[in-house]
Amino acid sequence: MPDSLPDSSPSPKPSLPKRWGIGLNVVLQVILVLGIFFGVNRLSYRYHARWDLSPQQSYTLSSATLNYLGKLSKDVFIANVFARDSKIFPDVQALLEEYRINGRGRVKLRSIDPLRDIDRAESLKAETGLALDQNGIVIRVGNRTRFIREEEMVIRETGNQTVRVIKEFRGEDAVTSAMINLIEGGERKFYMVLGKGARTEAALADAMAALGGLGRQQNFQLLPLNLADIKRVPEDADGLLMVGLRYDLSEREVDMLKAYWGSKRAGLLVMLDPAGETPRLHAFLGMNGVTPREDRVLYAESTGTGTRKEFSVQAVFDNESSITQPLAASTVTMPGQSQSLDLRFDDDYLQNQNITVHALIGASDRYWGEKNYLEDLPLVDEEDTKAPIFLAASVERGSVTDERLRVDTCRMVVVGNSSLLDKKTALAVNRDFVAGSLNWIINRDKLGGITPKLKHSYRIQLNPRQNELIFWITTIAMPGLVLGLGMMVWASRRAA
């Protein structure tokens, strides 16, 4: 028997400290992974970028609204009181989320479905005193409340059909206007000069209806004014509107106009009727750097079918003025007839009076200012006005060069066309330009018109072969791919 046998005792087990080290390493790794996970989520929450990839930029607020939200001085509470089955609920919710995100923490948003969240709806009724018997948006600033009904946020197709299709969504316009109303408190007052004739009664009615609609949206009140019945422009006038005057002002009325323009903060919007006989008004405008010319802006040519004479002017907006900068990417059609404006930019008299003139709208290159516009085929000659042709301009008196100083100034906008607000020819961009002009002349620089979002319905036409292909992909191929991957994972685990 051999003296010794091989040692068959089991190998010693790992020591306890080594096992604790592995466990501690695992714990540290888990903590590190969780820290990275929550850190990345925190950073992505605070610093992130958003893109609106919709064709119509449906989820992007206008520059006017963004500028206003950037200057909010009061907290705003908004409640989205819409049933979730409403056709515009997704649009309204997405719109109000943009207000909350861009409101710098001053905009608080709550969504309440009155059919499901009955308790919250009743609580909101008690807080606001509103009936809330239909879909809408509640906006509250301090103790002032405004309820925007669903129909105020949409424009529907006209016709006799039972269900009228929504063609435009103007929720942003309605919400921003309501916020202005609640934050500013009282309405601004614009006086529209009447009693001086007009192209037609319908044109005057269209202009007043359009301006009245803008007033409801932009928080100003439109009031009639007959200069023959007063001794001076009312002291509470934030702006004076002269739209399409056919007959001239009297000497006394011109003196009233000069006295108003000489006040500390005056606002004027003058939309000229080229066919009007208003030499005194023209002289007043000329003293402030804008002289209307006795011409018509047009384009004429001889074609195989006869003479073509075009009075409707295709024009472009200036991209530097705060009035037209939001519209610079758009083109505008000046309907009816327009007259050109002679603008004096560098004038010693104007500089001494601290008056600045700026062009707002210019005609496209093919148009010119024609003196003999009644001819069958007018041609450009020496007495006519050649490019650049200006159709609208702004005048500001009392401005300061230091942008850090906030000073209210006297402001005027002159347009060589009185047909921009005609019901049959008015475009959304025309309305936006007028809205921007009105806001500018009352020193509300950064707020202009807000164009409604068009609502489009898209239909995809599929032939039978495409329908069959979609069926096989969604019913057979995709579920089969998932099943195949699952079987592969199961087989690999069985083999291990």
Features:
Glutaredoxin, 4-stranded mixed sheet, alpha+beta, 496 residues, 9-stranded mixed sheet, 22% strand, 2 domains, Rossmann fold
Give a topology summary.
Elements: H1 16-46, H2 63-69, E1 76-81, H3 89-102, E2 107-112, H4 118-128, E3 136-141, E4 144-149, E5 154-156, E6 166-169, H5 171-184, E7 188-193, H6 201-218, E8 220-225, E9 239-243, H7 251-261, E10 267-271, H8 279-287, E11 290-292, E12 296-303, E13 306-310, E14 313-317, E15 331-334, E16 341-343, H9 348-352, E17 355-363, E18 368-370, E19 390-397, E20 410-415, H10 428-441, E21 453-454, H11 464-495
Parallel strand pairs: 1-2, 7-8, 7-9, 9-10, 10-20
Antiparallel strand pairs: 1-3, 3-4, 5-6, 6-21, 11-16, 12-13, 12-18, 14-15, 14-17, 17-19, 19-20
Pfam families: DUF7088
Protein name: DUF7088 domain-containing protein
Domain DUF7088: 56-131
